[in-house]
UniProtKB/TrEMBL annotation, chain A:
This is Cation:proton antiporter. The lineage of its organism: Bacteria, Pseudomonadati, Pseudomonadota, Gammaproteobacteria, Oceanospirillales. One of its GO terms (cellular component) is plasma membrane. The keyword Transmembrane applies. The keyword Glycoprotein does not apply. It comes from Halovibrio variabilis. PANTHER family: HYDROGENASE-4 COMPONENT F, NADH-UBIQUINONE_PLASTOQUINONE. It is a multi-pass membrane protein.
Automatic annotation (TrEMBL), chain B:
Its main location: membrane. It is found in: Cell membrane. This is MrpA C-terminal/MbhD domain-containing protein. Residues 15-77 form the MrpA C-terminal/MbhD domain. The chain crosses the membrane at residues 6-25, 32-50, 56-79, 99-120, 132-150, 157-175, 181-203. It comes from Halovibrio variabilis. Pfam families: MbhD. InterPro entries: MrpA_C/MbhD (IPR025383). It is a multi-pass membrane protein. GO terms for cellular component: plasma membrane. Keywords: Cell membrane, Membrane, Transmembrane, Transmembrane helix.
Automatic annotation (TrEMBL), chain C:
One of its GO terms (cellular component) is plasma membrane. It comes from Halovibrio variabilis. The keyword Transmembrane helix applies. It holds the Pfam family Proton_antipo_M. The lineage of its organism: Bacteria, Pseudomonadati, Pseudomonadota, Gammaproteobacteria, Oceanospirillales. This is NADH:quinone oxidoreductase/Mrp antiporter transmembrane domain-containing protein. PANTHER family: NA(+)_H(+) ANTIPORTER SUBUNIT D1, NADH DEHYDROGENASE.
């Protein structure tokens, strides 16, 4: 039985929120909050329903014709549902966090409206079943993120917005060209088709390579691969929830997810290997990983350091694809979820330090562990995960990637992994050291840059609990990796589907 | 009989051409408008001559009387007290620009001539048998040249009217005076009159708001015109 | 190409109810305009009441076409035969005209009430009525005489409307436009004269059967093309467009940019596909000019400081998209698939642009009316104070940029595919460059509006509904992207 309503309703739920929020007046804070949270919860329930149906082997498809030969198709498959689950879970956390973070500031209606639109686009990206549908939501994401980046309206934010658009819209044009070329070559190619494009290999080898380059090139901009990463650190001027959303879920992951779709579902792994494009991808990912870590080391402010860390970490996903083996794939897919959880935790922490104590630079963080213990514990968990230490989720990923590299006999990848972990440790451990072992204002030395007492606990509850939850989740994803429906388990299911159709 | 008929037609063609040229290139505006009325009367005769009494009547009413009135209204002859009346066109153009515009008009002339030549094969052998058609070509070309050359809005409006008449003459020469052709020309005459009326109202309004200088600005804002 | 314009014999004769619907669609706007000149409406509801029969007539014609396919009317008046035809394309364009016209008419009372009182404002109504009647006639007419009459009525009423604001700049721009439009129509008339002289008939269907390529056809096509290009503001004859749009009243520029210039383009394509079905160079010249138009229009819009000039210059660039498609529609050896794709993309782009541009002019008009400033810098801080107007502007500009899921995107997808199949790489490059340029100038405007550091002005509140009308137009342009199938199926229905 095909429950076509399920993917559509999931999409429409978040779209409806956008409409409601835009039609409510700016002052209707309470109503807006209620609608936002209600929709987020409903969406999680819907996604859980989809997870249940997918694990029972059913895939729900919704489609209608746009013009001759081009359809709008939504399909709930294992990979899509995975991404949808990540985004709806983190949407709830980030919404709660954002409500606390923006307490009393201006333009909240605009913020939450576009925020919801952003998440709608993410769900659409997750459920899209052909390149046309994917492109629709991908571009929607670009547009809906712009008002969030320039939210503060300062000169710096506006400049960052301009850079962001330059990168992403150019990428969109490249992607559009690739998509139309592919459509011209093959007609409407569904992500779920079994055949892949191998029929075209003999006659159109050059064209296929060109299309792959255009598609992945366009997607790599959002995935912030070097040298196309320039927009990401600049976009840090946005408010903390936006940075969390941009970096953990929406934008960069959409790029990485798109590359996954193109390689696994559109071209097929076999064809990609025969075209010889996979190795290029692996090398590019390795360069990005090392370069991102090195740049992160050089940053003196917290958020840019996290941003460059994202540049580096997202490419683990690409690297996992490049290992062409089941272990690499599992590592890549699991990292999509794990990195999301850990990175969002880190950004929540950064936002909390900035809100509560006015801390923006790393050298101001001395002794903050005493003043804000929960936040600092969460930060430590996230940081350890990023380095890849057990039992946090990041360890699982690196372990699988390492195994995948050895199985594929690509020993240089192991070197890259070790180097990167070392670099991660070099830029995260000093922060952890400062938090816990340096004496600072909490011990009576000096003063916090701008201290506010936002709540009874160490900070405002709206800011605290989402962070605690994501920190626990990243810990749990590592500890309980063997349980059914854990990220690892689901990634294994997807990878099995790819390798054993 | 045939010879006298032809002579009349040649005379008419000459009259049309001369009045048109005088109207187009006389810098004294009142005189130019008088020539226009004379031209319109000649057109009326020409239509009569071509065997289209209906068109002659329309031309007399719309072309000579009503359009003429429009021009004299634009000149400010009816309500002299309201704002200054127009006497002479005193605008000048850099001659490089005039030259370019004249070239364009010449190209147009060549194209129209070629078209006529292809459509009416007889004309190649005995061009003097169609004096009105020849006059039409002449008038069209010179009116277009004048339209391109002048900057004074009133003179451009005059040039447009003459151009219109030339085109109607060509139409009649090429397509004869069938019902369809007459209908096209009638519509064209009405449009030309409406256009002239709008133009005259506009010129008056501009004069009232901005003075004589506004009429030579060709749509450019004040700052750019020096 | 000929059958796509519905120039063939119809199977069924129109019903009586269809006759009435036709009369209402063609005559009612004009009558209501006259009535409104006598009793100028101050509120929106009388206008809405007057618009209902027009919309109903459009609906009746649509369902008549749905049931009977192509419909033809023919009259003989004093030896001259006039003919109309209703095919899928005509219905589509007629409905577009009616909806945009109704939106502009509904927008007008509020807009007139809020701007400073004008002595001539009551004359806007009859002119608007004539304009809408003439436009409807252009989509339906199928002989050169009716087309000429409708074209001239449309042109003159458009000039009249542009002049009403009474500003000196508007008058100068209007005078220039008047003279150019009149000369353009004379060029058209001369072309028609050649056709009449050579083939002796004016009905398009008969002409399509007898026209053979030759110097006469070429010269007539050149004359008609020059005249119509002047009226359609095709590059490089776009000079009059920006000043005219910049100085007219908002509903006037909305109607003008959305419909009037499109009518000339429609006639150009229709007549050329009769006169020049197989020439190689003419459509390529147009396409080359179109590429230049995309770049030049985009640059103009990017450099300007005035909001209305931005919107008007973007029209020049958007017309470029349509011009670039010409080689896929006209010319020898075009495969059926790219031609069909290009055909659908062309009209989808045209209709989508009409809705989006009308919405954009209204949104821009609202912003200017509320802030009292017409420059981009004057928009600083509007994102906080006038979010709805800005949102409408944004939704409309998404269509112009051709980003999904708007009609601009679907049209661009179709056009790109057609161009790729026929290997027109230059056109592909032009289309993609156009996207980036459009984004550049649109977001330049948004950059100003998001600037929060500007001092706060006093904003004039807008009349109720002014934003909603613009929003509904913008959303129509947006929704046509995903619902394009229904629209395009209508167009296809007449041909097969």
């Amino acid at each position: 039985m095909n429950a076509a309503w399920l993917p559509v309703t999931t999409l429409i739920t978040s779209l409806l929120v956008v409409v409601i929020i835009f039609s409510l007046p700016e002052e209707a804070r309470r109503l807006r909050t209620t609608v936002n949270l209600l929709a987020a919860v409903i969406k999680i329930i819907l996604v859980m329903l989809m997870v249940g149906r997918v694990s029972a082997g059913r895939e729900d498809i919704f489609s209608f014709q746009v013009v001759g030969g081009v359809d709008f198709v939504l399909r709930a498959d294992a990979l899509g549902v995975m991404f949808a689950g990540l985004s709806s879970l983190l949407w709830l956390c980030t919404t709660i966090y954002a409500i606390g973070y923006l307490e009393g500031s201006a333009n909240r209606k605009r913020f939450f409206g576009f925020f919801s639109l952003c998440v709608t686009s993410t769900i659409g990206i997750a459920l899209a079943d052909n390149l046309f549908t994917f492109l629709i939501f991908y571009e929607m994401l670009t547009l809906s993120t712009y008002p969030l980046v320039v939210h503060s309206g300062t000169q710096k934010a506006l400049d960052a917005g301009r850079v962001y658009l330059r990168y992403t819209l150019s990428a969109g044009v490249v992607l559009l060209l690739g998509a139309v070329l592919l459509h011209y070559l093959t007609g409407d190619q569904s992500f779920s088709s079994e055949e892949g494009l191998s029929d075209y290999l003999n006659d159109h080898r050059g064209l296929l390579t060109l299309i792959f380059a255009l598609l992945v090139g366009g997607l790599a901009v959002k995935a912030a691969m070097v040298p196309l990463h320039g927009w990401l650190p600049r976009a840090m001027v946005a408010p903390a929830p936006v940075s969390a959303l941009l970096h953990a879920v929406a934008v960069v992951k959409a790029g990485a997810f798109g590359i996954l779709r193109v390689v696994y579902d559109l071209f097929g792994l076999q064809l990609s290997i025969e075209l010889g494009v996979i190795s290029v991808l692996a090398v590019a990912a390795s360069i990005t990983i090392i370069y991102g870590s090195l740049r992160a080391l050089a940053q003196e402010e917290l958020k840019p350091r996290l941003a460059f860390s994202t540049v580096s970490q997202v490419s683990y996903i690409i690297l996992g694809i490049g290992l062409f083996g089941p272990f690499g794939t599992i590592g890549a897919l699991a990292h999509l979820l794990h990195q999301g959880l850990m990175k969002v935790t880190l950004f929540f922490c950064a936002g909390n330090y900035a809100e509560e104590l006015g801390i923006h630079r790393i050298d101001e963080m001395d002794g903050a562990g005493k003043r804000m213990p929960l936040t600092s514990i969460a930060f430590t968990v996230g940081a350890l995960g990023m380095i890849g230490l057990p039992p946090v989720a990041g360890f699982i990923t690196k372990w699988y990637l390492g195994i995948g590299a050895i199985r594929a006999e690509m020993y240089w990848v192991v070197v890259v992994l070790i180097a990167s972990s070392t670099l991660n440790a070099m830029y995260f451990l000093p922060i952890v050291h400062r938090l816990w072992f340096r004496l600072g204002p909490a011990h009576g030395q000096g003063q916090w840059p701008k201290e506010q007492r936002l709540g009874r606990l160490e900070t405002h509850g709206w800011l605290l609990w989402p962070m605690v939850f994501t920190a626990l989740a990243s810990l749990g994803a590592g500890l309980l990796a063997g349980m059914p429906f854990s990220p690892l388990d689901w990634a294994t299911r997807v990878a099995t589907g790819e390798y054993l159709p | 009989m045939i010879a006298s008929f032809d002579a009349l037609e040649i005379l008419l063609a000459l009259g049309l051409t001369v009045t048109a040229l005088a109207c187009l290139f006389d810098r004294h505006l009142v005189r130019a408008c008088c020539f226009f009325v004379a031209f319109a009367l000649a057109m009326t005769l020409a239509w009569w001559q071509l065997g289209a009494p209906w068109l002659a009547a329309v031309e007399l009413l719309l072309g000579a009387v009503l359009t003429g009135l429009c021009f004299f209204y634009a000149l400010g002859r009816f309500f002299p007290g309201v704002s200054s009346s127009l006497e002479r066109d005193s605008f000048n153009e850099p001659w490089s620009r005039s030259f370019a515009r004249l070239l364009l008009a010449l190209a147009w002339f060549v194209m129209v001539g070629a078209a006529i030549r292809y459509v009416i094969t007889d004309m190649v052998y005995s061009p003097d048998e169609q004096p009105l058609l020849l006059a039409g070509v002449m008038i069209t070309a010179s009116a277009l040249g004048a339209f391109a050359l002048h900057r004074h809005l009133l003179r451009r409006l005059l040039a447009f009217n003459i151009l219109g008449s030339g085109v109607f003459m060509l139409l009649a020469g090429v397509a004869g005076t069938s019902a369809s052709a007459q209908a096209l020309i009638t519509v064209g005459l009405c449009i030309a009159w409406l256009g002239s009326m709008l133009g005259a109202l506009l010129i008056r309004q501009l004069l009232h708001l901005e003075g004589v200088d506004a009429l030579g600005r060709d749509g450019n804002p004040k700052e750019n015109a020096t | 190409m000929i059958w796509r314009f519905g120039l063939f014999e119809s199977t069924f004769a129109p019903l009586v109810s269809t006759h009435w619907a036709l009369c209402i669609a063609l005559g009612f706007p004009f009558l209501m305009g006259l009535l409104a000149a006598l009793f100028p409406p101050k509120r929106m509801w009388p206008v809405a009441l007057a618009c209902l029969p027009v919309l109903a007539s459009g609906w009746v014609l649509l369902s008549a076409y749905d049931q009977a396919g192509l419909l033809r009317w023919q009259w003989d008046v004093a030896g001259v035969s006039l003919s109309l035809r209703l095919n899928g394309l005509s219905v589509l364009l007629l409905l577009t005209t009616q909806w945009i016209g109704v939106a502009a008419a509904l927008y007008t009372p509020g807009s007139l009430r809020l701007s400073e009182p004008q002595p001539l404002s009551r004359w806007l109504w009859p002119l608007m009525g004539v304009l809408l009647s003439a436009l409807s006639l252009i989509w339906l007419a199928s002989d050169l005489l009716t087309l000429y009459v409708a074209l001239e009525l449309m042109g003159l009423s458009a000039v009249g409307m542009l002049l009403l604001s009474g500003k000196v700049a508007a008058l100068l721009a209007g005078m220039r436009y008047l003279l150019l439009a009149l000369v353009g129509s004379l060029a058209y008339l001369l072309g028609v004269a050649l056709i009449l002289g050579h083939w002796g008939r004016l009905d398009l269907q008969g002409l399509a059967a007898v026209v053979e390529p030759g110097p006469v056809a070429w010269i007539a096509a050149a004359l008609i093309g020059a005249g119509l290009a002047l009226k359609a503001a095709l590059f490089p004859m776009h000079g009059w467009l920006s000043p005219v749009h910049g100085n007219a009243w908002t509903p006037v520029s909305a109607l003008h940019a959305a419909l009037v210039i499109k009518a000339s383009l429609f006639m150009l394509l229709q007549l050329w596909s009769i006169l020049l079905p197989d020439t190689f160079y003419a459509p390529r010249v147009i396409a080359l000019l179109g590429m230049l138009a995309i770049v030049w229009g985009g640059l103009l819009a990017w450099r300007t400081d005035s909001l209305k000039t931005l919107v008007a210059s973007s029209t020049v660039a958007q017309l470029g998209y349509l011009m670039v498609v010409f080689p896929l529609l006209l010319g020898p050896d075009i495969a059926p698939l790219p031609r069909a794709l290009a055909w659908e993309g062309f009209w989808l782009q045209l209709i989508g642009h009409a809705f989006a541009k009308a919405a954009m002019f209204m949104a821009a008009g609202n912003l200017i009316l509320a802030t009292g400033e017409s420059t981009l810098k004057g928009l600083a801080g509007t994102s906080r104070r006038l979010p709805l107007s800005l949102l409408i502007f944004g939704v409309a500009s998404v269509t112009l940029m051709g980003l999904p899921p708007s009609s601009g995107f679907t049209a661009k997808w179709l056009l790109l595919e057609a161009m790729l199949i026929s290997q027109q790489w230059w056109a592909v490059a032009a289309l993609l460059t156009g996207t980036l340029l459009t984004a550049a100038y649109v977001f330049r405007m948004f950059r100003y509006s998001f600037d929060d550091s500007a001092p706060r002005h006093h904003y004039q509140p807008l009349a109720p509904g002014m934003d909603l009308i613009a929003l509904s137009l913008a959303l129509t342009a947006f929704g046509l992207g995903l619902l394009a199938h229904f629209t395009l199926a209508l167009m296809r229905g007449g041909g097969v």
